[in-house]
């Protein structure tokens, strides 16, 4: 195997495998296998000196390294260390960031976007057909080939923002077709956190591209009102009703998270321990007795891993977004497109993460981290 990698160019093999893993991250078993191959090829490339002098995405890898270290400390100090330590191996996925920074450059970026456009079309049509087949109410929602509608909508959200940004900045109008398919599927998913992420992502894209893109807001609102089922409109309106079942439950989860943080401020209750300890902190009139997570990235991280880990997460968000924003004016296409797509997608999924815990969701994780690495690498190349 290693001999084949050497003949093909180990860095190129790592880039292909990494890109395919990101594009196919909705099939987590296949993505794991591909990432192992990408890691092996990257190791060969490093041994051959092919990665010497290439970027490592340090404005992302540094906060991720700190977050990983604090997660391990939290696992050891958890209410059930053996249970929490089972979450630690997933930290190895963070290694995709420096690998992507080194090998997923602007030359290989269009191939990644092309593959992502294909998968987006497939998943979007899959969801639309599911909706037409009866998965059209809150008790039975579209989820495509993924296990949960939240994961499905988060994956589609990231893909829509990446492909849409590339289509506009690189003037590839045909790529807007999968974007439209993906947006329709997002709306039919009834997933409000993804709608918030889409709105914020489009706002950033308008700032990066052209302000007239903001016209998509009223146009989309009119389309939803006149073309989509009334249930989609009602779901959007329910976002602002704090007495609505799911909304009130989120408030109860926030109150429970505050109690967890108060009792375990430095290391949290431990990775994977929120579900086990939630009944102890649950508000008496909370609609849900047991939850798997707190539906909010900052609250989940603080309650599960402690306030220092939350600080590392905030560092990650601030470091990447500020670095990307400062770098964009000095970048030329296609490098600018890579950074812009990474920024728009990251803002979108991070905004969605205020209403859903998507930071540790494997399928979304496996797509977002290579995108972050590719963008962070191009930022680093532009720095003196």
Write the layout of secondary structure elements.
Elements: H1 2-8, H2 10-23, H3 28-47, H4 58-76, H5 81-85, H6 96-103, H7 109-132, E1 136-137, E2 140-141, H8 149-169, H9 176-188, H10 192-208, H11 216-227, H12 230-237, H13 245-263, H14 274-281, H15 297-305, H16 307-327, H17 335-352, H18 362-382
Helix pairs in contact: 2-3, 2-6, 2-7, 2-18, 4-16, 4-18, 6-18, 7-8, 7-9, 8-9, 8-10, 8-17, 8-18, 10-17, 13-15, 15-16, 16-17, 16-18, 17-18
Question: Can you describe this structure in just a few lines?
Answer:
The chain has 384 residues and is mostly helical. The chain has two domains: 1-52; 54-240 and 301-382, no CATH class.
Key terms:
single chain; mainly alpha; two-stranded antiparallel sheet; 69% helix; globular
Order of helices and strands: HHHHHHHEEHHHHHHHHHHH
Number of strands: 2
Name the shape in a single word.
globular
Q: Give Rg in angstroms.
A: 21 Å
Q: Spans with pLDDT under 50 lasting ≥5 residues? A: none
| Total of helices | 18
Number of separate domains: 2
- What is the straight-line distance between the termini? 38 Å
Strand order of the largest sheet: 1-2
Q: What structural category characterises the helix and strand content?
A: mainly alpha
User: What would the average pLDDT be, to the nearest integer?
Assistant: 95
Largest sheet: 2 strands, antiparallel
Q: What share of residues are in beta strands?
A: under 5%
Helix % is 55-70%
């Amino acid at each position: 195997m290693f001999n084949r990698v050497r003949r093909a160019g180990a860095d190129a093999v790592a880039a292909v495998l990494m890109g395919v893993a990101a594009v196919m991250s909705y099939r987590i078993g296949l993505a794991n296998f591909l990432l192992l191959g990408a890691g092996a090829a990257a190791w060969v490339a490093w041994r051959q000196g092919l990665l010497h002098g290439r970027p490592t995405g340090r404005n992302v890898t540094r906060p991720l390294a700190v977050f990983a270290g604090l997660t391990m400390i939290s696992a050891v100090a958890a209410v059930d260390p053996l249970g929490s330590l089972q979450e630690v191996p997933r930290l190895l996925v963070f290694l995709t960031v420096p690998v992507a920074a080194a090998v997923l450059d602007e030359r290989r970026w269009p191939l990644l976007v092309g593959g992502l456009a294909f998968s987006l079309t497939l998943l979007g049509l899959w969801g639309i057909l599911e909706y037409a087949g009866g998965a059209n109410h809150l008790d039975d929602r579209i989820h495509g080939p993924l296990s949960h509608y939240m994961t499905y909508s988060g994956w589609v959200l990231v893909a829509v923002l990446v492909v849409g940004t590339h289509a506009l900045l690189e003037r590839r109008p045909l790529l807007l077709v999968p974007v439209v398919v993906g947006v329709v599927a997002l709306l039919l998913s009834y997933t409000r956190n993804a709608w918030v992420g889409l709105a914020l992502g489009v706002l950033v894209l308008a700032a990066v591209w052209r302000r007239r893109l903001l016209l998509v807001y009223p146009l989309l609102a009119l389309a939803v009102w006149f073309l989509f089922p009334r249930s989609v409109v009602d779901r959007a309106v329910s976002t602002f009703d704090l007495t609505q079942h799911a909304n009130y439950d989120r408030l109860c989860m926030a109150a429970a998270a505050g109690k967890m943080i108060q009792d375990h401020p430095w290391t949290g209750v431990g990775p994977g321990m929120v579900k086990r300890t939630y009944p102890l902190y649950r508000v008496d009139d909370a609609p849900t007795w047991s939850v798997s997570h707190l539906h909010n990235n900052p609250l989940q991280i603080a309650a599960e891993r402690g306030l220092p880990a939350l600080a590392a997460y905030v560092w990650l968000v601030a470091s990447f977004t500020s670095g990307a924003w400062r770098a964009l004016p000095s970048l030329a296409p296609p490098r600018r497109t890579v950074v812009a797509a990474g920024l728009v997608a990251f803002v979108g999924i991070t905004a969605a993460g205020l209403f859903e815990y998507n930071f540790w969701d494997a399928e979304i994780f496996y797509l977002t981290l290579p995108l972050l690495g590719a963008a962070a690498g191009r930022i680093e190349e532009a720095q003196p």
